[in-house]
């Protein structure tokens, strides 16, 4: 069996690695000059910054662990850092334990008591698809859905929880299926955030090095069915015929290629919206409060387009030069971006509002992540089903829009896909 994989992000490369392990002949085409898609670690005077993921959720014996071990990828965990939610004009610590949550000012007492009843809520059948906020309200109560969920979801998907499907976070339904979220989390165990040595970009680089054929700088432009049931892809002056073509691409890119080969799938994929986000990297004199900190997320109505800031120099000390603290601030997303957040001065003003002791930066850097994050709005399940079911034999589509937003979701989804 020969397979051509289009897209050399982590999804395409990890899929190729699995197929190669099974003894298949695989080639990967990547449109960009280098592999990795959003998962790239780029140099920045004396350190580096991430274009996409800051870390990945790892746990012993899971898909992430199995892949990292198989490709000998060294990684480290920063541990459990302090984190906050910005609300009511101040940063409120997110408690690390359920007991801590009971005494936290993050939610009113009634909301905390209702949350405790989660294990006793009946399990609802998976169909019909439920909204994310409705799911959390049903299981954990309105308090959690309105006071905690919005900032958490803005931090992952840069979008309002009210418009999303429960499928935006696939783990939720998986946990509920075990009887309750509490039970699911207890059974599944706790994951830790880890970062490969040298940054997240080392994962695609290491994967590509293990593959027999990876072509960077080659964009697929056309896909045609051959009379013998095989497929032909072409682009950049190259033509390749294969038994199977896997589109490991964002839905909107896959839709373009599938236009005439699989019109039903193309239509469904084109209807999956994506969110753009602005990322501002900045380096400052270290602050003791943020030294061992993951960062903070702002409760969305209050953030007015400022979603929060992470502390990459805590997660990955090599990212910043000695003696400096590195922040990464998330702006806009599906919440929109007010005019004051177009420039660093506006961002700095917002940062200083939440952390008054923060000094002026010694360096800043702006990156625009255009259509970077899928937005699984209510109806997502039907769109994915229609897309996958509409694919003719010999074509497949793999993506975080299918498996879930995080690297962990993708790697778990791929293990099931390849089985
Ligand atoms: C800002 C940001 C922060 C994130 N933070 C985290 C995090 O902390 N933890 C986490 O787990 N996840 C995080 N994620 C999500 C994670 O990065 C993504 O889920 C994952 O990287 C998606 O990988 P992918 O291969 O599916 O897609 P992509 O990375 O989009 O890769 C698709 C590839 O296909 C290529 N391509 C497109 N069209 C063609 C064509 N016609 N022919 C050939 N190649 C083509 C593109 O150039 C690209 O390289 C974050 C994402 C972003 C954007």
From TrEMBL:
It comes from Geothrix oryzae. Gene3D superfamilies: FAD/NAD(P)-binding domain, protoporphyrinogen ix oxidase, domain 3, Protoporphyrinogen oxidase, mitochondrial, domain 2. This is Protoporphyrinogen oxidase. Residues 11-366 form the Amine oxidase domain. The gene is hemG.
């Amino acid at each position: 069996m020969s397979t051509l994989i289009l897209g050399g992000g982590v999804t395409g490369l990890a899929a190729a690695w699995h197929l190669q392990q099974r003894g298949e002949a695989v080639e990967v085409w990547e449109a960009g000059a280098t592999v990795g898609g959003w998962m790239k670690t780029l140099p920045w005077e004396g350190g580096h910054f991430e274009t996409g993921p800051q870390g990945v959720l790892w746990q012993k014996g899971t898909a992430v662990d199995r892949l990292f071990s198989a490709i000998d990828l060294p990684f480290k965990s920063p541990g459990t850092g302090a984190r906050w939610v910005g609300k009511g004009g101040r940063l409120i610590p997110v408690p690390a334990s359920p007991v801590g949550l009971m005494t936290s000012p993050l939610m009113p007492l009634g909301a905390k008591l209702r949350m405790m009843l989660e294990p006793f809520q009946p399990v609802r059948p998976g169909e019909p698809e439920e909204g994310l906020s409705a799911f959390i309200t049903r299981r954990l109560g309105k308090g959690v859905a309105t006071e905690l969920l919005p900032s958490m979801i803005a931090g992952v998907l840069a979008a309002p929880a009210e418009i999303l499907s429960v499928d935006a976070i696939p783990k939720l339904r998986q946990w509920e299926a075990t009887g309750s979220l509490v039970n699911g989390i207890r059974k599944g165990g706790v994951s830790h955030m880890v970062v490969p040595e040298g940054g997240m970009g080392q994962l695609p680089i290491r994967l590509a090095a293990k593959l027999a054929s990876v072509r960077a700088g080659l964009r697929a432009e056309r896909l045609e069915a051959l009379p013998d049931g095989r497929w032909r892809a072409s682009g950049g002056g190259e033509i390749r015929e294969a038994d199977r073509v896997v589109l490991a691409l964002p839905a909107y890119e896959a839709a373009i290629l599938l236009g005439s080969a699989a019109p039903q799938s193309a239509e469904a994929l084109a209807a999956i919206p994506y969110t753009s986000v602005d990322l501002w990297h900045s380096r400052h004199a270290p602050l003791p409060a943020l030294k061992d900190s993951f960062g903070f997320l702002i409760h969305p109505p209050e953030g007015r387009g400022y979603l929060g800031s992470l502390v990459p120099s805590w997660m990955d000390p090599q990212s910043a030069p000695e003696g400096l603290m590195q922040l990464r601030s998330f702006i806009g997303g599906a919440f929109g971006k007010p005019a004051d957040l177009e420039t660093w001065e506006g961002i700095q003003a917002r940062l200083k509002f939440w952390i008054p002791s923060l000094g002026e930066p010694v360096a800043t850097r702006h990156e625009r992540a255009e259509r970077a994050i899928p937005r699984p709005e209510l109806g997502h399940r039907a769109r994915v089903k229609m897309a996958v079911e509409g694919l003719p034999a010999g074509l497949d589509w793999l993506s975080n829009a299918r498996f879930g937003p995080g690297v962990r979701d993708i790697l778990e989804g791929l293990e099931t896909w390849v089985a």
